[in-house]
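Feature request disguised as a bug report, sorry. It would help if multi-protein outputs had a clear separator. Right now it looks like this:
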Amino acid sequence: MRTRRLPTIVILIVAAACTLACAVPLPVVPASSPPPTPTSAPTATPTRSTPTPEAREPNYSNTSLGLSLWYPETWVYQDMPDAVAFASSPQLMSSEDWDTGAAFAVMRAELEDGQSIKDLIREQLEASAFTELETTELQPSAIGDARGIITSLEASPPRASMIIKGFVAGVERNRQAYLFLGLSDKDDWPEFGDALEAMLHSVRFTEPVGTFTSEDLGLKIWYAEDWIVEEDRDQVLFATSADLIENEDLASGAALMVRVSSMPDVLLADWLKEELESLTFDAGGLTSDVAPRTVGGREGLIIDLEGVPSGTGSPVAGFVAGASFEGQAYLFLAVAAKQDWADYASTLEKMLDSVEFME
């Protein structure tokens, strides 16, 4: 029997997406769901010339990643921040010696301004640790309810003499990039290729827990589950406590307000300038220049602030962002008590990143 030491799936993620710095095996969770019933078949990927695998009912769900998918009941998986990895055996997941197997990984990252999912896949492949890398042209591929792209690949992993075969697929949703990596030993592809493709075709995107949706305001936005939401006719306010909503003096905690109005016949920068003039401070104020900021897939603007708002006695920090969509102007005001800014900044940024405008 041939025995080879292959890299862990975590190392494969590093090689393919450069998102982790080292391989740290985590607890392995065995599958327990019964085999799902096949349903309809989606569009084929370019990885194989055989018929497209049937879409299967998901038996794995991750509300943080915002997706669910099917995986073989005998496989194991490992959750990581903004990623999940599946492997055909615990030995593969823990980097022990093994003689066969396959792995599948999902990774999520935020696209930079002007960056497309094609750019991201090309950049990650170029930066990967794979050697003798050969890929096909990027081709369209349906992933979940979105139109994605896929490329087949053959390569040598780091510190391994064998050849792997598989695919890298990607899709963009709300400026979030999802990368899907399916790999096996080239000699074992006939055994595992169908399962890997079935995993990709089974992907279903889900709304993250805590998604606020308003047809009247024309948007969706994520918020932390323990925050309070108060919606009015033309605005919605998210806050860390009910007291904060009732008390305009932000002594602690954080809040984000979204206000919608008709977009006047002016440039977005001019409209935002007028809105900013209504923000007055007893001390401090706007602390940066207006900068480009993608909001809900649209070209928006953002500016930082820090100071004591007029009529209050508590210093705050935050930002103001603006964007327009379908004749509507959207103003986003995010603030936190200055001493709490480090605790809430990432949450407020995530809320802005999650915005999705609705027609």
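(second protein starts here, but nothing in the output says so)
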Amino acid sequence: MPETGIQNCPVCKTENPDNARFCINCGAGMGGTLKITKANTDELGLKEAGKPLAAANVSYDPGTVVLNRYRVERELGRGGMGTVLLCRDMQNDDEPCCLKVINPQLIDNEDLVERFKSEGRIARKIRHPGIIATHDIFEWNKRWHIAMEFFPGTVLRKLITESDNAGTPIALEMAVAILTRMLDALEAAHQVTVHRDIKPENVMFYGDMKSPDFQVKILDFGIAKNFEVSNATMTEVAMGTTGYMAPEQAKDAARVDARADLYACAVIFYEMLTGLLPVGSYDPPSVLRPELPAWVDGFTDRGLKYRADARYASAADMRTALQNAGQTRQESQSQPQAAPVFAAVESAVDGKRGRWLRVKLMDSKQGRLHSVAFSPDGQNFATAGDDGSTQIWDARRLKRVVSLGGHSQWVKSVHYSPNGKLLATGSGDNTVRIWDTRNWRELNVIRGHEQPVIAVRFSPDGNFLASSGADQLAILWDAATFEPVTEVRGGGIAALSFSPDGLLLASGTLNQSVVVWDLMRGETLVELKGHRGTITSLAFSPEGRYLLTGSDDTTIRVYELPGFERTLKVRNHSSLIWSIAFSSDGKLVASAGEDKILVLRSLPDWEEVATFSDHPKGVSGVAFSPDGKMMATCGREGGVAVYALQA
């Protein structure tokens, strides 16, 4: 193997080759070349988000007076279509109000300008205390504006997030109070339009729910359906928010009716009570919260029916059912034998016959995360953190089960034994620890590395445990005694993967090559070269046909067995690839990058079927559940995202 110089990471001190661009452990920038940087942008693509909105010689700095009437105080927020400003209406005793201003990069797009104006026209027709009032629509300095009521409330998303983080679920009475008022407002709105984007971000509330002054308001009619104009031109536009869209809306947004909004209301009700989205194979609310009465399951079941004609017929119908539910068991007894919405998804997991939806985004409270792994039974998953802990999560309820300590430095890698009885963790303290998953007690501390442990993997038969470290050493351990069986030195060991039959062990090295060992013969089978950077991730496909290798050269290389011929070079990422994972049936492959992107590809055509960007500092790990219907990712900001397949 070619020799290379060594440099220590300036942050975590891990040894890296002198041409490494990123540390193999912490991802910190190194002394190598070709570092890829991007301009800081907000969700609209505007550079340096947070600075006052300005474009086309128009300034909205505090104190700016718009149309000789509205004095700007500050920016409240930004969305895909517009920026919302808090203002004072100088013609109405300086009453607070809001101006929504179309975003500057959209002003030359006639279709989107018309859509912006349509939002104002539609909202102005709805007069109800549960709808944010629209006062005026006007053009000023070649920019369209919507003048709206200012509502000093709390966004429902904030309540859901804070309740979930605190571990104190939203009270049923609160959820009922919010939903009842939402349905009041939608009853009025549906005389004019279908909102088509009901979600927690578009709902606000104010006051004590027990007070007659308690208010709930629906906002943002940006993609509402106008009953007075043809929707023929709208069928090509994606309408709605994934996770809240009714099935028929995902197929044809132009033809939906009010029942699509009611489906979204049922999703929000479920989310308020459980903290989760009802996606894929999910539980009735009372399973997640046993204290909830049975009627809640029946109410949400009907609201989430796949067929629109099986749901509530109108907002009034749904509100009446909600009000009566606490007084009668009728809802929970209707169609008791049929609950397909709670059944497991039976369709093939091929990435094309279903949609992957994010169910939940959680703060691990572990600092930067490095890897994630599902247990073989799919009941839980583990995340490895910078704080030295390993967190165990309930994969159904998406709650933290236990926190494993023991390591004195960051935990880099986690892996379950095939029978699920053991969990191995590798750490920057140079040790591997073995945990009993039945009681989460530490069984063993393995000391064999002189540098941080980068990867740990059990063999498919469970007889061996492999560990590799920054000391350029890979060790094969007997999984019964945890005594060393053999070791290999050279090249620096950055990633590990067993072939499905357990006969081969692939190792990514710091010197830009992948070494594959024949474990039966105890010798190197092949050394794969071609990457121009450290090998940061490896994965054999479940049937053993492919070996995928990811590197900090931003590419994934595909080698086909048995000859290890390179058949494909995939470029999905603009930075290093931290993790690669296959679904259990081998029909999907996921790659997680430092560029903040998670990419899903289908096999055998290698077609990109989905991308996600839920980790603002990079996606450091990805894993599929054993049944292929869930996926978990971890991020360098400390977040955990969970996705489910919706047929």
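Even a blank line would do. Unrelated, but nice: Residues 542 and 586 are 6 Å apart (CA to CA).
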